[in-house]
From TrEMBL, chain A:
Residue ranges of domain FAD/NAD(P)-binding in the record: 3-303
Gene Ontology terms: cellular component: cytoplasm
Protein name: 3-phenylpropionate/trans-cinnamate dioxygenase ferredoxin reductase subunit
GO molecular function annotation: dioxygenase activity; oxidoreductase activity, acting on NAD(P)H
Domain Reductase C-terminal, residue spans: 322-406
Cofactor(s) needed for function: FAD
Keywords: Dioxygenase, FAD, Flavoprotein, Oxidoreductase
UniProt-listed InterPro entries: FAD-oxidoreductase/Apoptosis (IPR050446), FAD/NAD-bd_sf (IPR036188), FAD/NAD-binding_dom (IPR023753), FAD/NAD-linked_Rdtase_dimer_sf (IPR016156), Reductase_C (IPR028202)
Pfam families: Pyr_redox_2, Reductase_C
From TrEMBL, chain B:
This protein's record includes keyword Transcription regulation: no
Matching Gene3D superfamilies: 3.10.20.30
Entries under SUPFAM superfamilies matching the protein: 2Fe-2S ferredoxin-like
Single GO MF descriptor: 2 iron, 2 sulfur cluster binding
Protein name per the record: 2Fe-2S ferredoxin
Length: 409, 100
C-alpha cells in the first residue's frame, strides 16, 4: 500500500500530525501506523486518572473511532515498523507488510526501559508506558499487598501517588541522591521527597537494586546492593525510555540517543521527518543544545510544525516547553527547561504547599517549576519566553507579581 | 441531552447534541471540532481548550489564571475542560477563538 503521508507512531504526536494536516485542508492519503492495538490515546493519564480508575479508556481517546474514518485517516494498528528504505520510500513491519510513502513522519516515541538485572522479567514486574501496561498493573493490584517502585522520575512518583491513594504500602527506590534529578532543581526534589514520605511512601535514595527475586513465577521482592531484601508482590519500573529509532538509524539517519532533526523536524534522510520523544533537536530554550523532550507539548507542537511544512507553510519549531505532573493534591506546572541552570530562586513557602522555583542561566530566567502556583506559571511564561533578566531578590518577593517583572525586563 | 451550537474559526456553525456528565472539551473533541487542541487532556493545566460561551459563565480561579495565557481572552472566555455538561446547557453557544 502506498500513502502520501505515512505516520509511524500513533501517540500524541502522530495523531496530531494527521489531525492538523486535515484541519489545514490537506487532501492526500494519510495513514497512521501504531504498534499498539488501540486507537490513539493520551498517555499521561496512564499514571494518573486511568491508573486510578477515575477515567475509563474511552475518555482518554485522542479522538473517537468515527473521527478517523470521517477524516479519511487510515489507521494501521498492531503493526511495528522494523525497517525503513529511504531510497525506495518504503517501510516494512514485523509482520512483513510493506508500505510505500511520499513523506514519512516518524513519531514512534520510545519504549519503557526495563531492568537489566536478574529477575527483571518476572511476572509482577511492570513498566507504565502503554494502556496494556496500565491494565496489567491494575488487574494484579487487588491481590498485591506491597509494591516497590523503582525510579524517582515523574512516572515513578505519579504511580506511587496513585498506589498510595489505593491504600497500598509503597517503597520507592531511587539510585541517585534525589528524586527528579534529571528534570528539576534540588529544592523541588526535596519538596517531593518530603511529600511522598508524609503520604506514607518509604522513599529510599541512593538505593542500588541488585536483582529482583521471585518464587520461580512471580516477583516476591527486590534485593538491594547492600543485601537488604524488600518483600513485594509487584514492582513498578519507571527508569526512563529508550527512543524507538533503530530502523531510522539503520537506514542511515543521523542520530544516537534519538534521531537528529532540524528546525523543521527533518531528519538527515530525504522525505523523512521525526517528532516527539525521539526527536533530537536544538531547542531554543536549552541554549540551542541538542535535546530530546519527552512531553505532550513537544509532541503536539512538533506535529503542528510538520503539518505546516507539509502544507506549504513551513515555520521553524520554536515552542516554549511546558509540562505538568499531578501527585496527591499537588499540581506541578513547569515552563522552560531548567537543565544547565546556574541559579535558582525560591518564591513562596513550600510548607504552605504553594510555591515556585525560578531558574536562571547567565542572569536570565530559563524556567519555572510551580507547585499549586498557577499564577506564577502563567505570568512566568513571559519571563522564560523573553529570557528576562530579573533581580533575584525581586523574584523571591511574592508580593511582586511576576508580570510586573516581565514588564520591567 | 443538551444541544449546543458551535461556531468554528471560519465562522460556520453547527448544532450538536452532547452527552451530559462529560466536559464541553470532550464534547467538542468527540464531535470533530479539531481547532480545540486540549493538550493536557482536560486537567486544567494549559489553556489550549479555550472557548467563548454564551450565556457567559464564571471561570474558576485556576481557570481564570490560565485564560490569561491567551491573547484572545474575552469576558465570555472559559476553558471548555472545566465545564461539565448538564441538561441546563441546552442552547449554549460556543465559539472557538482565534489561534494563539
Amino acid at each position: 500500500m502506498q500513502h502520501d503521508v505515512l505516520i509511524v507512531g500513533a501517540g500524541h504526536g502522530g495523531a496530531q500530525v494527521a489531525v492538523t494536516l486535515r484541519q489545514r485542508g490537506y487532501t492526500g492519503g494519510i495513514a497512521l501506523i501504531g504498534d499498539e492495538p488501540e486507537l490513539p490515546y493520551e498517555r499521561p493519564p496512564l499514571t494518573k486518572d486511568y491508573l486510578s480508575g477515575a477515567k475509563p479508556f474511552e475518555r482518554i481517546l485522542i479522538r473517537p473511532a468515527a473521527f478517523w474514518q470521517a477524516r479519511g485517516v487510515t489507521l494501521l494498528p498492531g503493526r511495528r515498523v522494523v525497517a525503513v528504505d529511504a531510497a525506495a520510500h518504503t517501510v516494512t513491519t514485523a509482520g512483513g507488510e510493506v508500505f510505500g510513502y511520499g513523506q514519512l513522519v516518524w513519531a514512534a516515541g520510545g519504549r519503557a526501559r526495563r531492568l537489566a538485572c536478574s529477575g527483571g522479567d518476572l511476572a509482577g514486574v511492570h513498566t507504565v508506558r502503554t494502556r496494556a501496561d496500565a491494565d496489567a498493573l491494575r488487574a494484579e493490584l487487588p491481590a498485591v499487598e506491597r509494591v516497590v517502585v523503582i525510579g524517582g522520575g515523574y512516572v515513578g512518583l505519579e504511580a506511587a501517588a496513585v498506589l498510595r491513594a489505593a491504600g497500598k504500602p509503597v517503597v520507592l527506590l531511587e539510585q541517585a541522591d534525589r528524586v527528579l534529578g534529571r528534570v528539576a532543581g534540588e529544592a523541588l526534589s526535596r519538596f517531593y521527597e518530603d511529600e511522598h514520605r508524609a503520604q506514607g511512601v518509604d522513599l529510599r535514595l541512593g538505593a542500588q537494586v541488585q536483582d529482583v527475586v521471585g518464587d520461580g513465577r512471580r516477583v516476591t521482592g527486590v534485593r538491594l546492593a547492600d543485601g537488604a531484601l524488600i518483600p513485594a508482590q509487584m514492582v513498578v519500573v519507571g527508569i526512563g525510555i529508550t527512543p524507538a529509532v533503530e530502523p531510522l538509524l539503520a537506514a542511515g539517519a543521523e542520530g544516537g540517543d534519538g534521531v537528529v532533526v532540524d528546525a523543521f523536524c527533518r531528519t538527515s534522510l530525504p522525505d523523512i521527518r521525526a517528532i516527539g520523544d525521539c526527536a533530537l533537536h536544538a531547542n531554543a530554550y536549552a541554549a540551542g543544545r541538542r535535546t530530546r523532550l519527552e512531553s505532550v507539548q513537544n509532541a503536539n507542537d512538533m506535529a503542528i510544525t510538520v503539518a505546516k511544512a507539509l502544507t506549504g507553510a513551513a515555520e521553524p519549531y520554536h515552542a516554549v516547553p511546558w509540562f505538568w505532573s499531578n501527585q496527591y493534591d499537588l499540581k506541578l506546572q513547569t515552563v522552560g527547561l531548567s537543565a544547565g541552570h546556574d541559579a535558582a530562586v525560591l518564591r513562596g513557602d513550600p510548607a504552605a504547599r504553594s510555591f515556585s522555583i525560578v531558574y536562571f542561566r547567565a542572569g536570565r530566567v530559563v524556567a519555572l517549576d510551580c507547585v499549586n502556583a498557577i499564577r506564577d506559571y502563567t505570568q512566568g511564561r513571559a519571563l522564560v519566553e523573553g529570557g528576562a533578566r530579573c533581580d533575584p531578590a525581586a523574584v523571591a518577593d511574592v508580593s511582586v507579581p511576576l508580570k510586573d517583572l516581565a514588564a520591567a525586563a | 441531552m443538551p444541544i449546543i451550537t458551535v461556531v468554528s474559526r471560519d465562522g460556520t456553525g453547527r448544532a450538536v447534541e452532547m452527552d451530559t456528565g462529560t466536559t464541553l472539551m470532550e464534547g467538542l473533541r468527540d464531535h470533530g471540532f479539531d481547532e480545540v487542541l486540549a493538550m493536557c487532556g482536560g486537567c486544567c493545566s494549559c489553556a489550549t481548550c479555550h472557548v467563548y460561551v454564551e450565556p457567559a459563565s464564571t471561570a474558576t480561579e485556576e481557570e481564570d489564571e490560565l485564560l490569561a495565557l491567551s491573547a484572545h481572552r474575552r469576558d465570555t472566555s472559559r476553558l471548555s475542560c472545566q465545564i461539565t455538561l448538564t441538561p441546563d446547557h441546552d442552547g449554549l453557544r460556543v465559539e472557538i477563538p482565534p489561534e494563539d
